[in-house]
C-alpha cells in the first residue's frame, strides 16, 4: 500500500481517496463494480458511527480501479480512514447483501440505458474495440450481473486487497494515521471462501429470461414537489436539516428506506430551493417503470408520518455541520455560500455562527416545520 498526504494546517477537514487497482481482463464483466457496491454496503452497515460524525464517503468504479472518497472534519479523520481500511481488510460478504445489491445494480443499469450520453459513448467504445475486453462496460449487462456470485467477489478481493493507494489532502494527525495503517495485520483476514452450491441451470436460465424480458429498459425519472410560502418566518437551517435527514447521501432516510431496504431504485434524493419569499422542497428518484407507484406510495407514507427523534436530529446536525465545514474549506464553495447566505438573510455568516445556530435548534422546531412542508398535496412530474 502507498500513501500520499498533503498537509493543510489552515483547514478544518480532510479529503481522501482510496484506490483499489485491478486488471480488468482477469475478471467477469461487472465484477469490480458489483464489489464496490457490496463493500460500500458493508461500510454503511458496520458500526463506525460515520453518520453521527458527519463523515461522507462516496464510491465509483472505472475500467482500472475502484475508488472511495472520504470527507471528514479533522477531529474525525483517523476514524474515517480506519472505516475505509477495515472495509477492505476485514470484508465478509453477506448473502442478503449480494441479492439486495443485485437488484439495485439492475436499477442502475436501467438508469444508464435511459441516458443518451451514456449510450452513445458506449456505442463508440464498442466500435473502437470491437470484441476486445476494453469494449465491455464497467457495469456489465443484465446477464453478467446475474451470474456474479460470492466466490467471484471473494476471489477479486483476495487478489486486490493489497493493491491500494491512499491520497489525503487537508488537516489530520498524520502520525496517528500512519500508525493505524502500519498495524493492520493482513493475516487476520476473515474472508474464507465458502463452498458455493451447485447452480440449477434450468432455474438460472428462467431467471435470466425473466430479467431480460421485464420492463427494465423503461426508466422513469420522477420528481415530487411541495411549495412553502413565506419561508423566512421559519428558520432556514431547519429546512436544511430536514433535507439533510431525508435525502442527503447514502445514509439518508429516503435512501435507507427505499434503496437499501427495498432495492426499488438506483438513486433517490431531496433538495430545497429558496426564492426571495417562498421556497420549494423536492424529492426525486429514478427507477424502472414497474417500481414507480410503489416508491411514490412509500415516500408519501414516509413524509406524512415523519416525526424525528433526538438521536436522528443529532445525526442530521452533524452531517449538515460537516457539509458546511467542507464548503468553507473550499474557496469556490466558500465564496458562493457566503454570498448566497447574505442575499437570503442579509448578513455575513461565519462558520462558527452557523454551527451555533444549528446546534441550538430543538426537536419541536423541526417537527413543526415537517408538518408545514408535507401536510399538503404533493405535485408529481415524470419523464
The proportion of strand residues reads 15-25%
**Strand arrangement, major sheet:** 1-5-2-4-3
Kindly state the percentage of residues in helix. 40-55%
CATH topology of the largest domain: Cytochrome Bc1 Complex, Chain A, domain 1
Please give the domain count.
Answer: 2
CATH hierarchy, class of the largest domain? Alpha Beta
N-to-C series of helices and strands: EEHEEHHHHHEHHEHHEEHHHHHE
Which structural class should the secondary elements be placed in?
alpha+beta
Number of helices: 15
Mean pLDDT reading:
85
Q: What's the total count of β strands?
A: 9
The oligomeric state is single chain
Supply the CATH superfamily name of the largest domain: Metalloenzyme, LuxS/M16 peptidase-like
Distance between the termini: 46 Å
CATH arch. level architecture of the largest domain: 2-Layer Sandwich
Radius of gyration: 22 Å
- Please describe the biggest sheet, giving its number of strands, its sense, and whether it closes into a barrel: 5 strands, mixed
Which runs of at least 5 residues are low in confidence (pLDDT < 50)?
185-214
Principal-axes shape call: globular
If you had to describe this structure to a student in words, what would you say it looks like?
- The protein has 2 domains: 2-213, Cytochrome Bc1 Complex, Chain A, domain 1 (2-Layer Sandwich), CATH 3.30.830.10; 219-382, 2-Layer Sandwich (Cytochrome Bc1 Complex, Chain A, domain 1).
- It is 49% helix and 18% strand.
- The protein has helices at 31-45, 77-89, 95-113, 116-129, 142-146, 150-160, 174-182, 201-213, 236-247, 253-260, 292-304, 310-328, 331-345, 351-360, 363-374, and strands at 2-7, 13-21, 56-61, 65-73, 164-170, 219-228, 267-274, 279-288, 379-382.
- The strands form 2 sheets. A 5-stranded mixed sheet has the order 1-5-2-4-3. The chain has a 4-stranded antiparallel sheet with strand order 7-8-6-9.
- The longest helix is centred in the first third of the chain and has 19 residues, at 95-113.
- The termini are far apart.
Amino acid at each position: 500500500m502507498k500513501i500520499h498526504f498533503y498537509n493543510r494546517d489552515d483547514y478544518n477537514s480532510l479529503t481522501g481517496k482510496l484506490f483499489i487497482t485491478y486488471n480488468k481482463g482477469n475478471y467477469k464483466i461487472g465484477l469490480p463494480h458489483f464489489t464496490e457496491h457490496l463493500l460500500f454496503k458493508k461500510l454503511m452497515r458496520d458500526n463506525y458511527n460515520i453518520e453521527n460524525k458527519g463523515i461522507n464517503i462516496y464510491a465509483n468504479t472505472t475500467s482500472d480501479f475502484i475508488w472511495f472518497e472520504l470527507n471528514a472534519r479533522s477531529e474525525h479523520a483517523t476514524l474515517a480512514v480506519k472505516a475505509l481500511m477495515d472495509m477492505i481488510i476485514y470484508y465478509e460478504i453477506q448473502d442478503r447483501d449480494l441479492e439486495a445489491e443485485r437488484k439495485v445494480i439492475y436499477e442502475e443499469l436501467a438508469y444508464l440505458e435511459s441516458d443518451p450520453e451514456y449510450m452513445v459513448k458506449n456505442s463508440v467504445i464498442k466500435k473502437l474495440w470491437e470484441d476486445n475486453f476494453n469494449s465491455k462496460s464497467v457495469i456489465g449487462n443484465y446477464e453478467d450481473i446475474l451470474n456474479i456470485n460470492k466466490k467471484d467477489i471473494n476471489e477479486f478481493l483476495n487478489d486486490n486487497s493489497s493493491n491500494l493507494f491512499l491520497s489525503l489532502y487537508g488537516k489530520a494527525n498524520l502520525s496517528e494515521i500512519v500508525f493505524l495503517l502500519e498495524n493492520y495485520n493482513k493475516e487476520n483476514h476473515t474472508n474464507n471462501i465458502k463452498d458455493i452450491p451447485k447452480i440449477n441451470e434450468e432455474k438460472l436460465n428462467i431467471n435470466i429470461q425473466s430479467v431480460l424480458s421485464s420492463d427494465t429498459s423503461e426508466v422513469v425519472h420522477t420528481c415530487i414537489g411541495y411549495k412553502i410560502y413565506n419561508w423566512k418566518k421559519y428558520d432556514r437551517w431547519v429546512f436544511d436539516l430536514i433535507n439533510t435527514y431525508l435525502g442527503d447521501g447514502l445514509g439518508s432516510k429516503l435512501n435507507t428506506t427505499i434503496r437499501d431496504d427495498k432495492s426499488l431504485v438506483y438513486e433517490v434524493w431531496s433538495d430545497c430551493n429558496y426564492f426571495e419569499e417562498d421556497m420549494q422542497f423536492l424529492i426525486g428518484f429514478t427507477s424502472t417503470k414497474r417500481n414507480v407507484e410503489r416508491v411514490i406510495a412509500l415516500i408519501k407514507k414516509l413524509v406524512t408520518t415523519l416525526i424525528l427523534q433526538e438521536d436522528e436530529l443529532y445525526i442530521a446536525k452533524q452531517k449538515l455541520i460537516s457539509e458546511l465545514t467542507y464548503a468553507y474549506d473550499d474557496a469556490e464553495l466558500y465564496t458562493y455560500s457566503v454570498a448566497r447566505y447574505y442575499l437570503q438573510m442579509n448578513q455575513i455568516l461565519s462558520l462558527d455562527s452557523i454551527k451555533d445556530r444549528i446546534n441550538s435548534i430543538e426537536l419541536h422546531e423541526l417537527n413543526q416545520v415537517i408538518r408545514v412542508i408535507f401536510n399538503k398535496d404533493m405535485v408529481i412530474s415524470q419523464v
